[in-house]
Amino acid sequence: MKLKARQAFTLIELLVIVCLIAILAAFALPSFSHCKCKSVRIACVNNQKQIGVAYRVWSGDNGDKYPSEVSKSPTNGGWADFAKMTNAGPYCWSNYALMEIELGQSPKVLACPADRRKPAGDFKHLSNKNISYFMGGGANENFPLSILGGDRNVAPGLKPQNDFGFSPDDGKGNDVILQTNSAICWSLKMHSGENPVGAGNILMGDGSVQQCSSARLMTDYQCNAVDAGNFPTGYLNKSNSFRLIFP
User: Fold this and answer.
1) Of 127, 138, 115, 126, which Cα lies nearest the Cα of 48?
2) pTM for this structure?
3) I need a surface site. Which of 121, 133, 179, 236 has the fewest CB within 10 A?
4) Per-residue pLDDT of the chain (247 residues; tens, 9 = 90+)
5) Domain total of the chain
6) Is residue 110 a contact partner of residue 125, using CB atoms and an 8 Å limit?
Protein backbone atom coordinates (compact mmCIF):
# COMPACT_ATOMS: atom_id res chain seq x y z
CA MET A 1 0.00 0.00 0.00
CA LYS A 2 1.42 3.38 -1.02
CA LEU A 3 1.37 6.08 1.69
CA LYS A 4 0.35 9.61 0.73
CA ALA A 5 3.01 12.25 1.16
CA ARG A 6 2.23 14.70 4.02
CA GLN A 7 1.72 18.22 2.75
CA ALA A 8 3.40 21.19 4.42
CA PHE A 9 1.54 24.34 5.42
CA THR A 10 0.97 26.76 2.62
CA LEU A 11 2.17 30.36 2.93
CA ILE A 12 -1.40 31.57 3.45
CA GLU A 13 -1.98 29.03 6.24
CA LEU A 14 1.22 30.12 7.99
CA LEU A 15 0.20 33.77 7.76
CA VAL A 16 -3.21 32.96 9.25
CA ILE A 17 -1.59 31.09 12.17
CA VAL A 18 0.86 33.94 12.83
CA CYS A 19 -2.01 36.45 12.81
CA LEU A 20 -4.01 34.34 15.27
CA ILE A 21 -1.03 34.08 17.63
CA ALA A 22 -0.50 37.84 17.44
CA ILE A 23 -4.17 38.51 18.25
CA LEU A 24 -4.12 36.13 21.22
CA ALA A 25 -0.91 37.72 22.50
CA ALA A 26 -2.47 41.20 22.23
CA PHE A 27 -5.35 40.03 24.44
CA ALA A 28 -3.03 38.31 26.95
CA LEU A 29 -0.42 41.07 27.43
CA PRO A 30 -2.70 43.51 29.33
CA SER A 31 -3.61 40.73 31.75
CA PHE A 32 0.05 39.89 32.35
CA SER A 33 0.82 43.60 32.83
CA HIS A 34 -2.03 43.99 35.33
CA CYS A 35 -0.87 40.93 37.29
CA LYS A 36 2.68 42.28 37.41
CA CYS A 37 1.53 45.71 38.65
CA LYS A 38 -0.63 44.05 41.30
CA SER A 39 2.17 41.80 42.53
CA VAL A 40 4.58 44.76 42.74
CA ARG A 41 2.09 46.75 44.79
CA ILE A 42 1.58 43.80 47.15
CA ALA A 43 5.36 43.63 47.59
CA CYS A 44 5.32 47.35 48.49
CA VAL A 45 2.53 46.78 51.02
CA ASN A 46 4.58 44.00 52.61
CA ASN A 47 7.61 46.33 52.78
CA GLN A 48 5.61 48.93 54.66
CA LYS A 49 4.13 46.33 56.99
CA GLN A 50 7.66 45.24 57.91
CA ILE A 51 8.60 48.87 58.50
CA GLY A 52 5.53 49.25 60.74
CA VAL A 53 6.57 46.19 62.76
CA ALA A 54 10.11 47.59 63.08
CA TYR A 55 8.72 50.86 64.49
CA ARG A 56 6.67 49.01 67.09
CA VAL A 57 9.52 46.72 68.13
CA TRP A 58 11.84 49.74 68.42
CA SER A 59 9.27 51.60 70.53
CA GLY A 60 8.93 48.58 72.81
CA ASP A 61 12.61 48.95 73.68
CA ASN A 62 12.43 52.74 74.02
CA GLY A 63 9.61 53.62 76.38
CA ASP A 64 6.82 53.04 73.85
CA LYS A 65 8.07 55.91 71.71
CA TYR A 66 9.02 56.05 68.05
CA PRO A 67 12.49 57.32 66.98
CA SER A 68 11.30 60.88 66.29
CA GLU A 69 10.17 61.16 69.94
CA VAL A 70 13.46 60.01 71.52
CA SER A 71 16.54 62.21 71.88
CA LYS A 72 19.96 60.79 71.17
CA SER A 73 22.01 59.89 74.22
CA PRO A 74 25.14 57.87 75.05
CA THR A 75 22.96 54.82 75.71
CA ASN A 76 20.48 55.00 72.84
CA GLY A 77 19.98 56.49 69.39
CA GLY A 78 16.93 58.63 68.77
CA TRP A 79 15.77 60.94 66.00
CA ALA A 80 14.18 63.78 68.04
CA ASP A 81 17.18 66.07 67.52
CA PHE A 82 16.65 65.89 63.76
CA ALA A 83 12.89 66.33 64.24
CA LYS A 84 13.52 69.71 65.88
CA MET A 85 15.21 70.98 62.72
CA THR A 86 13.38 73.23 60.25
CA ASN A 87 14.25 70.89 57.38
CA ALA A 88 14.89 67.30 58.43
CA GLY A 89 14.40 66.00 54.88
CA PRO A 90 18.10 65.49 54.11
CA TYR A 91 18.33 63.22 57.17
CA CYS A 92 15.20 61.15 56.49
CA TRP A 93 17.37 58.08 55.83
CA SER A 94 18.83 58.18 59.36
CA ASN A 95 15.38 57.58 60.88
CA TYR A 96 15.35 54.18 59.17
CA ALA A 97 19.02 53.51 59.91
CA LEU A 98 18.20 53.67 63.64
CA MET A 99 15.98 50.62 63.14
CA GLU A 100 18.63 48.52 61.39
CA ILE A 101 18.24 45.58 63.77
CA GLU A 102 14.44 45.79 63.80
CA LEU A 103 14.43 45.82 59.98
CA GLY A 104 16.35 42.56 59.91
CA GLN A 105 19.65 44.31 59.10
CA SER A 106 18.53 44.53 55.47
CA PRO A 107 17.69 47.87 53.83
CA LYS A 108 15.94 46.09 50.94
CA VAL A 109 12.47 46.71 52.42
CA LEU A 110 13.07 50.48 52.22
CA ALA A 111 12.93 50.47 48.40
CA CYS A 112 9.67 49.82 46.54
CA PRO A 113 10.08 47.59 43.46
CA ALA A 114 7.93 50.11 41.51
CA ASP A 115 10.30 52.98 42.32
CA ARG A 116 13.32 53.90 40.19
CA ARG A 117 15.37 53.99 43.40
CA LYS A 118 17.34 50.86 44.24
CA PRO A 119 18.01 49.41 47.71
CA ALA A 120 21.34 50.01 49.42
CA GLY A 121 23.69 47.07 49.75
CA ASP A 122 23.84 47.61 53.51
CA PHE A 123 22.95 50.21 56.13
CA LYS A 124 26.46 51.71 56.05
CA HIS A 125 25.76 52.96 52.53
CA LEU A 126 22.10 53.91 53.06
CA SER A 127 21.01 57.33 51.77
CA ASN A 128 17.77 59.05 50.76
CA LYS A 129 18.34 57.77 47.22
CA ASN A 130 17.76 54.23 48.50
CA ILE A 131 14.43 54.99 50.18
CA SER A 132 10.94 54.97 48.64
CA TYR A 133 8.88 55.94 51.69
CA PHE A 134 8.29 59.18 53.54
CA MET A 135 7.95 59.21 57.34
CA GLY A 136 5.41 60.89 59.61
CA GLY A 137 7.23 63.16 62.04
CA GLY A 138 4.59 63.10 64.77
CA ALA A 139 2.87 59.74 64.25
CA ASN A 140 2.77 57.10 66.98
CA GLU A 141 0.65 54.27 68.36
CA ASN A 142 -1.35 56.65 70.56
CA PHE A 143 -2.70 58.21 67.37
CA PRO A 144 -3.68 55.13 65.33
CA LEU A 145 -5.03 57.25 62.44
CA SER A 146 -1.88 59.34 62.17
CA ILE A 147 0.22 58.80 59.05
CA LEU A 148 3.47 57.04 59.92
CA GLY A 149 4.75 56.55 56.38
CA GLY A 150 3.86 55.91 52.77
CA ASP A 151 4.93 55.97 49.13
CA ARG A 152 7.11 59.00 48.49
CA ASN A 153 5.20 60.19 45.40
CA VAL A 154 2.81 62.48 47.29
CA ALA A 155 2.38 65.78 45.48
CA PRO A 156 0.75 69.14 46.24
CA GLY A 157 -2.48 70.10 44.48
CA LEU A 158 -5.39 68.07 43.14
CA LYS A 159 -4.01 67.35 39.66
CA PRO A 160 -1.52 64.47 39.59
CA GLN A 161 1.94 65.51 38.48
CA ASN A 162 4.27 63.41 36.38
CA ASP A 163 7.08 63.43 38.95
CA PHE A 164 7.56 62.49 42.60
CA GLY A 165 5.92 65.57 44.07
CA PHE A 166 7.35 66.46 47.49
CA SER A 167 10.20 63.94 47.14
CA PRO A 168 13.01 65.34 44.94
CA ASP A 169 14.95 62.95 42.74
CA ASP A 170 18.29 64.36 43.90
CA GLY A 171 17.82 62.76 47.34
CA LYS A 172 18.08 66.05 49.24
CA GLY A 173 14.76 65.32 50.92
CA ASN A 174 11.91 67.58 51.93
CA ASP A 175 10.11 68.51 55.15
CA VAL A 176 6.44 69.40 54.72
CA ILE A 177 3.83 70.51 57.23
CA LEU A 178 0.27 70.02 55.96
CA GLN A 179 -3.20 70.81 57.20
CA THR A 180 -5.89 68.13 57.35
CA ASN A 181 -7.62 69.92 54.46
CA SER A 182 -4.52 70.63 52.34
CA ALA A 183 -4.79 69.80 48.65
CA ILE A 184 -2.55 66.79 47.98
CA CYS A 185 -2.64 63.73 45.72
CA TRP A 186 -0.49 60.88 44.48
CA SER A 187 1.68 61.75 41.49
CA LEU A 188 1.72 59.54 38.39
CA LYS A 189 4.61 57.40 39.62
CA MET A 190 5.09 54.08 41.39
CA HIS A 191 1.58 52.57 41.76
CA SER A 192 -0.37 55.15 39.75
CA GLY A 193 0.35 53.63 36.34
CA GLU A 194 -3.18 52.34 35.77
CA ASN A 195 -4.94 55.12 37.66
CA PRO A 196 -4.98 58.58 36.00
CA VAL A 197 -5.96 60.24 39.29
CA GLY A 198 -3.14 58.60 41.25
CA ALA A 199 -2.88 55.80 43.80
CA GLY A 200 -0.51 54.67 46.53
CA ASN A 201 0.03 53.02 49.91
CA ILE A 202 0.21 54.59 53.37
CA LEU A 203 1.41 53.26 56.72
CA MET A 204 -0.78 54.22 59.67
CA GLY A 205 0.20 54.97 63.26
CA ASP A 206 -1.19 51.60 64.38
CA GLY A 207 1.08 49.74 61.93
CA SER A 208 -1.58 48.88 59.34
CA VAL A 209 -1.06 49.62 55.63
CA GLN A 210 -3.82 51.04 53.43
CA GLN A 211 -4.07 51.16 49.64
CA CYS A 212 -5.90 54.23 48.43
CA SER A 213 -6.57 56.57 45.54
CA SER A 214 -5.84 60.30 45.70
CA ALA A 215 -9.48 60.98 46.62
CA ARG A 216 -9.46 58.48 49.49
CA LEU A 217 -6.10 59.78 50.67
CA MET A 218 -7.79 63.11 51.38
CA THR A 219 -11.30 62.06 52.42
CA ASP A 220 -10.49 58.96 54.49
CA TYR A 221 -6.97 59.43 55.85
CA GLN A 222 -5.62 62.96 55.59
CA CYS A 223 -8.66 64.42 57.36
CA ASN A 224 -7.87 62.21 60.40
CA ALA A 225 -4.09 62.59 60.28
CA VAL A 226 -3.69 64.80 63.37
CA ASP A 227 -0.82 63.39 65.43
CA ALA A 228 1.42 64.10 68.42
CA GLY A 229 2.87 67.16 66.72
CA ASN A 230 6.65 67.04 66.91
CA PHE A 231 7.06 70.15 64.77
CA PRO A 232 10.31 72.07 64.24
CA THR A 233 11.42 74.34 67.04
CA GLY A 234 9.56 77.66 66.82
CA TYR A 235 6.68 76.43 64.66
CA LEU A 236 3.45 77.88 66.08
CA ASN A 237 0.59 77.03 63.69
CA LYS A 238 -0.01 73.51 65.07
CA SER A 239 -3.80 73.37 64.81
CA ASN A 240 -5.01 70.49 62.60
CA SER A 241 -1.49 70.03 61.24
CA PHE A 242 0.69 67.02 60.57
CA ARG A 243 4.25 66.68 59.33
CA LEU A 244 5.62 64.45 56.56
CA ILE A 245 9.36 64.09 55.91
CA PHE A 246 10.37 62.92 52.45
CA PRO A 247 13.59 61.20 51.36
Assistant:
1) 115
2) 0.84
3) 236
4) 555 555 566 767 667 667 766 666 555 445 444 445 678 889 999 999 999 999 999 999 999 999 999 998 766 789 999 999 999 999 999 999 999 999 999 999 999 999 999 999 999 999 999 999 999 999 999 999 999 999 999 999 999 999 999 999 999 999 999 999 999 999 999 998 767 889 999 999 999 999 999 999 999 999 999 999 899 988 887 789 999 999 9
5) 1
6) no
